[in-house]
Design a protein that fits this description.
The complex is a heterodimer of chains A (239) and B (286).
Chain A: H1 2-6, H2 9-38, H3 44-77, H4 79-99, H5 116-146, H6 157-180, H7 184-202, H8 209-221, H9 224-236
Chain B: H1 2-13, H2 18-23, H3 25-42, H4 46-59, H5 64-80, H6 84-95, H7 102-121, H8 128-132, H9 140-150, H10 156-159, H11 163-172, H12 176-189, H13 191-200, E1 210-216, E2 225-230, H14 234-239, H15 243-251, H16 256-265, E3 270-274, E4 280-285
Antiparallel strand pairs in B: 1-2, 1-4, 3-4
Chain lengths: 239, 286
């Protein structure tokens, strides 16, 4: 201490600083010793690894955060851009829900269903089409039987009889429909033709030329082919 | 005068047994009565026709025509109205005959089904047996018609008995007319049976299964009209759309056939048509 008193003032200050440092170092050393005594050195490597990985995750999160924050902040700062983005999202959602096939919304809509009213309309439409078809086919049969009395029918008797029978079967279904939908004119002409087909269906052999001529006269006098055409046209135009 | 002329004319037309009639005066009379009766049936003069038939049966009970006349008796009684039960008996007697003609037997069976249907709808429950028993008939023409007619009875529980036969028609039948009838009948009585029958049919890659139509009024979420039907009925369904809806489609310049072609090509896409009244028509298939 005496020596220090004799020192020049600069060196004295330096000596005091070193002395203070040594004192503090000694204090730290004792703390280190205390801390070292409390450390579980066997578990320490695992603990270090865990903390290191946690630190890495934190770092990555920290790296991502500024970008998102910047994006939000950019929108926050630009209402027009925010509105545009929101519009795009909402618009896309609306387009998705509006333009995809409605049936895809849920599995519950896979069953067939139709109202009774619709089925009636469908049957009426079917009656109209089937009546037209019946009248057309009837025309072909009648034309074959009646148009060439000299040569006789082109179609063999068995085929003609089968066709007449098939038309009678169709007529059975038509009866129900034409009555239900009050298609009186169509029913009347179909009934008239039915009688002829009933006769044709029962004939197994060829008709003699004289009989053919008489039937042809009958059809002409009754103007059956003309009536068929008129009713057919009416049905086709949906009258 | 005109009617008499027609009667004479048609009597000549139907005079197919004239040669044999000349050899036997009694047969000629039976023949002429039969022809006259048929002519009267043709003119729907049921009362007069029935009188001729009764005369034929009374005077010539052993004539083969007396048996055949039973069918026409059924026609007359059925046409007269109020005599359904008698008509039913006449047809049933005819189909029991050994020499009954197959085409007339088929017609008689159909007539029995029709008469039974009318009687059931008028409150005679036992009449339904005549239809139900024909669901097992060996002749498919009779079987199919019985099923079709049964599907129309107002008692839904009874109508549902037609479903198995109708389903078989959908699965096995080729005739498009019969198929469509069976489909509509099944939609009426058992839509789930139709779905199951359609699913059993082999499906090609390009064949769509279902046509869906919705009509929405304005902004309402629930459709005012909703339809899911087999695609095979699509053409019929579009033809049967309400006239206002059809007008809206036409007004927008759409052609129904084009619509269907486009929808088939772009499977599962949807066509939306906005009507002037604010309604929206949606049509799509899958």
């Amino acid at each position: 201490m005496d020596e220090r008193k004799n020192m020049p003032s600069e060196r004295r200050a330096e000596s005091e600083a070193i002395e203070r440092l040594l004192r503090e170092t000694e204090a730290v050393r004792s703390e280190i010793r205390e801390a070292a005594a409390s450390v579980d050195w066997e578990a320490l490597p695992g603990l270090i690894a865990d903390r290191a990985m946690a630190a890495d995750r934190e770092r990555r999160r920290a790296e991502a955060a500024p970008g998102r924050a910047a994006w939000l902040s950019a929108l926050w700062m630009r209402p027009v851009l925010a509105g545009l983005a929101a519009g795009l999202v909402v618009g896309a959602a609306v387009m998705y829900f509006a333009l995809r096939a409605p049936g895809g919304r849920a599995g519950r809509d896979e069953a067939y269903h139709a109202s009774g009213e619709f089925l009636d309309r469908a049957e009426l439409e079917m009656a109209r089409r089937n009546a037209v078809d019946y009248l057309e086919k009837s025309q072909y049969v009648l034309l074959d039987v009646f148009e060439s009395p000299e040569e006789g029918p082109v179609v063999p008797a068995a085929v003609r009889s089968e066709r007449a029978r098939s038309l009678l079967q169709k007529k059975q279904y038509l009866n129900s429909q034409l009555e239900r939908f009050q298609m009186a004119k169509a029913k009347a002409i179909c009934d008239q033709i039915e009688m002829l087909f009933r006769e044709l269906a029962q004939l197994e052999g060829d008709l003699p030329a004289a009989e053919l001529g008489r039937i042809r006269d009958y059809v002409e006098e009754r103007q059956l082919l003309l009536k068929i055409n008129l009713v057919k046209k009416e049905l086709q135009s949906g009258v | 005068m005109r009617k008499i002329a027609w009667t004479i004319c048609f009597a000549l037309v139907l005079g197919l047994g004239a040669a044999s009639a000349r050899d036997n005066p009694q047969a000629a009379t039976a023949d002429s009565l039969f022809r006259e009766a048929k002519l009267l049936v043709f003119d729907k003069d049921w009362r007069a026709a029935l009188d001729k038939i009764n005369e034929l049966v009374d005077r010539f009970p052993s004539s083969p025509l007396a048996g055949q006349a039973l069918f026409y008796k059924g026609e007359c009684l059925s046409g007269l109205g109020g005599r359904e039960r008698d008509a039913l008996r006449a047809y049933k007697s005819y189909i029991q005959l050994d020499d009954a003609k197959p085409s007339l037997v088929e017609e008689s069976e159909g007539a029995i089904v029709d008469l039974a249907f009318d009687l059931f709808e008028e409150g005679s429950d036992p009449a339904l047996r005549d239809i139900v028993s024909r669901l097992e008939h060996p002749n498919k023409v009779v079987r199919y018609y019985a099923a079709y007619k049964l599907s129309l009875v107002s008692d839904k529980k009874e109508a549902a008995k037609a479903a198995p036969v109708l389903s078989r028609i959908v699965v096995t039948e080729k005739d498009p007319e019969l198929l469509d009838r069976a489909r509509i009948a099944l939609l009426r009585v058992s839509p789930e049976s139709l779905k199951s029958a359609e699913d059993r049919k082999p499906r090609t890659v390009t064949t769509a299964r279902m046509l869906r139509i919705r009509v929405r009024d304005g902004s309402k979420r629930e459709p005012s009209f909703s339809l899911n039907i087999p695609f095979a009925l699509a053409d019929l369904a579009l033809g049967a759309l309400d006239e206002d809806d059809k007008a809206a489609i036409r007004k927008k310049g759409y052609d129904i056939n084009k619509i269907m072609n486009e929808l088939v090509k772009s499977k599962e896409s949807i066509l939306r048509i906005a009507g002037d009244d604010g309604s929206i028509i949606e049509i799509w298939i899958d």
